[in-house]
Design brief:
This protein has one domain (about 1-180, about 260-275). Helix content is about 75%, strand content about 5%. It is built from eleven helices and two strands. Helix 7 runs parallel beside helix 11. The chain starts with a helix and ends in a 5-residue tail after the last helix.
Length: about 280
């Protein structure tokens, strides 16, 4: 398996998708710092470095950016092995399917972590002199980073599974992007539903005068449905990314467990199907 991993990393040095992903990460880090500095100057407010740091896992709670990057990178990098015949050659020379599958998963996961670390390093080196040190406690910051990294690994497990099963690079890229976008919009919608207040003010006209009345919010999510919504947000990597980047996560200690479940289940299911698949 070591030879397969070394071969993948050697290919990454020349791979255009890897270079574009790395360049995008660097530009995103620089733009985040510039935007934060400009906002601080215009609004005359102090922006903590913590918020810029956590944007590595998403764009301020609005876009699960790591998922989009991982969807494109994993699908195209692994998909190339099928389109170029590399996958078939690996099997011909005697590599076991489980080794090939797990090596590709490790390649995607380590690449995602590397891209993220590049962002974190740039924001720390450039941002700390401009915005000051971290305000979050060290333990909390490490827990947030652990959650974010595991979410990225969960993304890698999902997209590697899709690519290894479907084989067609174009279909994999489209399906991976659709998956991450759909899950992101779903989690964003559920988060907005949970933010709704239990009571709202209603304006009425009485005898020509405007009056207000506080009434129950019909759209308010309560009871078991509220727990279900929160579970979906906490479980999906996109929901984790949105919460981490928006600093709104409420179950930081549970999210790593959910990511671990996704990683184990998708890898086991993917290996099972790939082991029985006819490689063209």
């Amino acid at each position: 398996m070591n030879k397969l991993l070394i071969a993948n990393f050697s290919r990454m040095k020349k791979d255009m998708v890897c270079k574009i992903s790395l360049l995008f990460t660097i530009l995103y880090a620089i733009l985040t710092i510039v935007a934060g500095w400009r906002s601080m100057e215009i609004n005359d407010v102090q922006i903590p470095i913590d918020s810029l740091f956590l944007n590595s896992f998403g764009v301020s709670g609005f876009v699960a950016l790591p998922g989009i990057v991982m969807a494109a990178f994993c699908s195209m990098f692994i998909g190339t092995e099928f389109s170029d015949g590399t996958m078939r050659n690996k099997l011909i020379v005697g590599h076991r399917r489980r080794e090939i599958y797990f090596t590709n998963f490790l390649t995607c996961a380590l690449s995602g972590i590397f891209f993220n670390l590049v962002y974190l390093a740039l924001v720390s080196l450039i941002g700390i002199p401009l915005f000051g040190g971290f305000q979050l406690e060290t333990g909390t910051l490490l827990l947030l980073m652990t959650d974010g990294m595991l979410a990225i690994i969960a993304y890698a497990a999902i997209f590697n599974m899709l690519t290894m099963i479907l084989q067609n690079k174009t279909i994999c890229v489209c399906l991976a992007l659709i998956t991450v976008m759909a899950s992101m919009f779903l989690c964003f919608y559920l988060m907005k539903r949970l933010e709704g207040p239990p009571m709202v003010e209603v304006y009425q006209m009485v005898n020509g005068q405007t009056t207000t009345e506080t009434v129950p919010n019909k759209q308010y999510v309560a009871g078991s449905m509220r727990k279900i919504f929160q579970f979906i947000i906490d479980f999906l990597p996109s929901g984790q990314s949105l919460q981490l980047s928006g600093q709104s996560a409420v179950h930081l200690k549970l999210m790593p467990l959910y990511s671990a479940v996704i990683i184990l289940v998708t890898n086991a299911f993917g290996m099972f199907l790939f082991g029985r698949k006819d490689i063209r």
